[in-house]
Amino acid sequence: MKEILLLKLGEIVLKGLNRGTFEKRLMKNIAWRIRDLGEFKIYCMQSTIYVEPQGECDMSYVEERISRVFGIVSICRAAECEKNMDAIFLTATEFLKDKLESAKTFKVDAKRADKSFPKKSPEICMEIGGKLHDLYPHLSVDVKNPELLIKVEVRDRAAFVHANPRPGAGGMPVGANGRAALLLSGGIDSPVAGYMIAKRGVSLMGIHFFSYPYTSERAKQKVIELAEKVSAYTGKMYVAMVPFTKIQEEIRDKCDEDLFTLIMRRFMMRIAEKIAIKNDCKALITGESLGQVASQTMEALGVTASMCTLPVLRPVIGMDKEEIVVISRKIDTFETSILPYEDCCTVFTPKHPKTKPRLCDLEAAETALDIDALVEEAIVNTEFVEI
Ligand code: ATP
Ligand code: MG
Q1: Over the chain, what is the mean pLDDT?
Q2: Are residues 201 and 336 in the same domain?
Q3: Do the Cβ atoms of 117 and 155 come closer than 8 Å?
Q4: Bridge partners of 160?
């Protein structure tokens, strides 16, 4: 019996003239993600991507990897057979044996994409459903909510039988909508923010600010681990590691303590934007959520990014912490995020941070600093880590 994966596409099918480009990108992403699991023929026909193993491989691993590729709404692990009713029935009994034995209710759904096939969809359902019922009399038919939903697809290339498809990751193929730079801290929010934007078809690079020796080598490792987890969805990415100690010390020594966090965050945005532009990114992404902390009031967000020319995407802006945590658990970053290593944001934090800052006060305070030189020095000393 020949096993194959049939991948059903999401929003791509609405893409009109660009559709071919999206499909190609998606196939490339799939190939990259399963490259070490065996040899595969990957092609697109009739709005479905076929992943056909060319030899031995563990299909469960392949399915697992593909479940994190954006652009796919469902993954059907199918058995292929000849386009005749006997072969379809036999394949269903062999391929779905365990499921047919353990389920209590079932239903057969048929789709005849090859209109030259002599039986129409309802006839296929009736005949295959009837014969399966005869063979497994313990099963009863449930058309509304069957435990086992068997699908028969008669396509141009062959017939396919599968049951209970697995949901895909949704969204659009990474890279189809360009590239953006994610400001990645060690916290819960920023990996989730990166995941959400990547889901819209955007490839990512990470930017992390660290303040050695105030923050440890272990804190940096934690960020790399988070980037690795996000890259299960995005594919290969780089993280720029920006040394931030000198800037933080300068701000501490020369500016009003109440403004420390905001001035620091303005430096982050300046540096991130420069690195982003150099690396062909069209936007910045942060994990800011409205009102979560003093530096995330509307006034604070306004001054933080006032110098940015790139759009600043804040996908978790309207989400509660609880909602963000649900996603971080789903994408498996939560346990890493809560490891207790310090972030540069928690170094020198003011006792009374301003929640309603005015841009003019920040600009006045920043005249004490040589902004361009500090930014330049940080960028020159930035190291890139490949994930
Ligand atoms: P997170 O949970 O992602 O750390 P947070 O709730 O701790 O977010 P802040 O520390 O105020 O919030 O940071 C807000 C956003 O600023 C982060 O989501 C991230 O995008 C960015 N950021 C904060 N610290 C850093 C850092 N050290 N390096 C890169 N980006 C950072
Ligand atoms: Mg943080």
Answers
A1: 95
A2: yes
A3: no
A4: 80, 153
Q: Give this prediction's pTM.
A: 0.93
Domain count, the chain: 2
Residue ending a domain, choose from 170, 194, 216: 170
- Between CA 350 and CA 353 the distance in angstroms is 5
Taking only the tens place, the pLDDT of each residue in 246-299 is: 999 999 999 999 999 999 999 999 999 999 999 999 999 999 999 999 899 999
Both 138 and 194 in a single domain? no
Residues 95 and 53 reside in one and the same domain: yes
Q: Quick one: tokens of 143?
A: 């058309």
CATH of the domain at 234: 3.40.50.620
Q: 344, 345, 346: which to mutate for ligand 1, most atoms within 8 A of CB?
A: 345
Residues 41, 31: Cα–Cα separation, whole Å = 9
Per the CB < 8 A criterion, the answer to whether 215 and 366 are in contact is no
For residue 237, what are the domain limits? Answer: 179-386
Q: State which of 182, 183, 304 you would mutate to test the pocket of ligand 1, scoring each by most atoms of that ligand within 8 A of its C-beta.
A: 183
Q: Are 151 and 76 in contact (CB under 8 A)?
A: yes
Mark whether 123 and 203 lie in a shared domain: no
How big is the chain by its Cα radius of gyration, in Å?
26
Max CA distance (Å), the chain: 85
31-47 in b/e form (b: 16+ CB < 10 A) is eebbeebeebebebeee
Task: Indicate if 357 and 238 belong to the same structural domain.
Answer: yes
Which range among 17-26, 100-109, 150-159 shows the weakest confidence by mean pLDDT? 17-26
- Same domain for 194 and 80: no
How far apart (Å, rounded) are the C-alpha atoms in residues 176 and 188?
A: 26
Write out the two tokens for 93: 């009994």
Ligand 1 neighbourhood includes 194 CB (under 6 angstroms): no
Q: Do both 141 and 268 map to the same domain?
A: no
Q: How far is CA 273 from CA 60, 278, 359, 362, in A?
A: 41, 9, 19, 19
* Beta-ladder partners of 81: 159
| CATH number of the domain where residue 115 is located | 3.30.2130.30
- Residue 188 Cβ inside 6 Å of ligand 1? The answer reads yes
Q: How confident is the model at residue 92 (pLDDT cuts 50, 70, 90)?
A: very high
